[in-house]
Specification:
Length: 181
């Protein structure tokens, strides 16, 4: 993890693997690899940072296990281990970094929302509260930028208005989700 206890790309992939196995149950190696590739590509697009994590490495580290067969070579049925479930819980509770252009935050948020129901109710509320706080911080940053750029020529102000509206909508959505939990 980064110093701020947020996920690095390889840890986001670990979260995707472990969450998928915990949520959906054991999967064949090829099916799991294909499902992860599809999900990751659709959220952040092709990324070299995200392609490096091997299911074999997770198996070697004891986070997943072959329930039959040995691994990739015989398309083994893979399942999460107890250590994998502990790692999943740790990864789900990690911080989310301030928004950035690299797409990693969007992936981490998508993964947290995809697997949020697998956490206890208090942890779910903590995670949504943290995501709402990120939206509030983003709104403060964008509002400051808008004030500083007021009256400038071009299309920047209109683009900021769009970004602010989207951040306000995300905040409202997270607050509504928090109220439902």
């Amino acid at each position: 993890m980064y110093r701020d206890n947020s996920l690095m790309p390889k840890e986001a992939v670990r979260l995707a693997v472990l969450g998928t196995l915990i949520q959906d149950g054991p999967k064949r190696y090829a099916e799991l690899a294909g499902a992860l590739r599809h999900f990751l590509d659709r959220i952040v697009g092709p990324s070299l940072d995200l392609m490096g994590t091997s299911l074999e490495m997770l198996r070697y580290e004891g986070l997943v296990e072959a329930l039959d067969g040995t691994g990739m070579e015989d398309n083994a049925l893979l399942g999460a281990t107890a250590a994998g479930r502990t790692e999943f819980d740790t990864l789900m509770r990690a911080n989310v970094r301030a928004p950035s252009a690299d797409g990693l935050n969007k992936l981490v948020i998508a993964l947290k929302l995809r697997f949020l129901h697998l956490l206890d109710a208090e942890a779910q509320r903590d995670q949504i509260d943290h995501l709402a706080s990120l939206c509030e911080t983003e709104l403060a940053r964008l509002g400051d930028l808008k004030r500083a750029s007021a009256g400038t020529e071009g299309h920047f102000d209109a683009w900021l208005d769009l970004d602010i509206a989207q951040a306000e909508e995300r905040l409202a959505w997270f607050n509504a989700l928090l109220a439902r939990l």
